[in-house]
Amino acid sequence: MKKLLAILLVLLVFSTLFAAGTKEAATMDKEIVLDWWTWDPDMTEQNKTIIATFEAENPGVKINNTMVGTKEYWTKIRIQANQNKLPDVFTMSSGYLEEWAKAGLLYNLDEFIQKDDTFDVFYTSIFDTNKATSGTDSYYAIPFALVTTVLYYNKDAFDAAGLAYPTDKWTWNEFKNAAKKLTIDKNKDGKIDQWGFWFYGRYAHIEPWVFGNNGNLVDNKTMRFAPDKNAMDAIKMLTDLVLVDKVAPAQKDMTSFQQQDVFPQGVAAMWVDGSWFVDIFRKNLGDDMRWGMVEVPVGPNGSRDMAYGWPDSYAIAPNTKNPEMAWKFARYIAGEGLDLDVYMAGKIPSAKKLAEDPLFADPNKQPGKDMNLLIRQAAGPMKNSFTMGWSEWRGYGGSETLGLNGTIDAILNGHASFADAFSKGTNNINAVLARFYK
């Protein structure tokens, strides 16, 4: 009897171990599926390659990529959020980061960042820009690229005028003096053929000057639009370029041009805009124009240590079933597993190994070594104006005739005085902010 009991006990142990092993094997064999939403259809084929490589390196993981057109992306992703069906990993804009983080729609990444080598691989400064933009003390997105703003200049125009090229140490006065000499009526018919500078109320045209003069647009305590003296001085300096100095055209006189054509067609010798235009100029200009880029001139109250920029990022759904793998994949597509050729020229990778690749500042492609400016900006502190309701109060996309954009254009086009435009504009902007910040 004892022998029989011993045999039964052994069989029971083996059956238990077998069952546990089978259960473990079943768990290991279960496929992990991550849904990944992005908004750039031009990346469709590249994403397929990225997915194939990640899946090969991580057996048992499957990535489903849904590509949504930029115009439809936010409508569709909001529907997913409302239905509690957010994809595991998805593209996140700086313009919506605060709104989504405070609504509990993004996974808090602090636990991963604290235990991983995140800041050995990625620029801390770009992550910190995301944290500041979120209006919280936590990280809710992992940046894959940074865009900043620079002063583009036409080397051929400077040579023709006998002027030295701009430098990163230019003052506002040096910039204005050059703009005056570059504003030319070539055929003496009373019409300007080449303006020294061109801009309108768009955020990337205005805010580098504001923050470069240590100005602020929004009071962070009240969350109301309350531009300080440094900000107003910067905006007044810009509007005077059109109304007083006559070195830049009014926006109403430029409606026959698309903004991306004004500088390449030689209509303006200088222009401030996003670093992504490096790619556009390389493709559209080739070697038809010699051009360069430098830091946007810093105002009398500003610091050269502060850049104006914002990241493009990925976020993780707060209810993802596979947070560890989602984080691993997010790091991978944020640059850890990518090559430099995936990036649009002028977008600064947040992964150090890519940004510091010698080909980032390829000497055989314009603007050559000037690209190192972007690396310096990526490594330092940054500011931007993103808040909840930003696209509306700032005047972006379908709201370009409204908000701050519309306020500045009204001044440039002579529709309102500086004081009147800002009085009315401030009330309208704060009506927007009041809906988001009670």
Shape: globular
* Number of H- or I-type helical stretches: 19
Order of helices and strands: HEHEHEHHHHEHHHEEHHEHEEHEHHEHHH
Q: How many individual β-strands? A: 11
- By CATH, the topology of the largest domain is D-Maltodextrin-Binding Protein, domain 2
- Determine the structural class based on helices, strands and strand pairing: alpha/beta
The CATH C-level class name of the largest domain:
Alpha Beta
Rg (C-alpha, Å): 26 Å
Parts with pLDDT < 50 across at least 5 consecutive residues: 1-28
Residues in β-strands, percent: 5-15%
What is the terminal separation in angstroms?
80 Å
- Average pLDDT confidence is 93
Provide an overview of this structure.
- The protein is of the alpha/beta class and 438 residues long.
- It folds into two domains: 31-147 and 308-382, 3-Layer(aba) Sandwich (D-Maltodextrin-Binding Protein, domain 2), CATH 3.40.190.10; 153-307 and 388-436, D-Maltodextrin-Binding Protein, domain 2 (3-Layer(aba) Sandwich).
- The chain has 19 helices and eleven strands.
- The strands form two sheets. Strands 1, 2, 3, 4, 7, 8, 9, 10 and 11 form a nine-stranded mixed beta sheet that branches. Strands 5-6 form a two-stranded antiparallel sheet.
- Strand 1 (32-38), helix 2 (44-57) and strand 2 form a beta-alpha-beta unit.
Question: Could you list some keywords that capture this structure?
Answer:
438 residues; alpha/beta; D-Maltodextrin-Binding Protein, domain 2; 2 domains; 9-stranded mixed β-sheet; two-stranded antiparallel ribbon; 13% strand; disordered N terminus
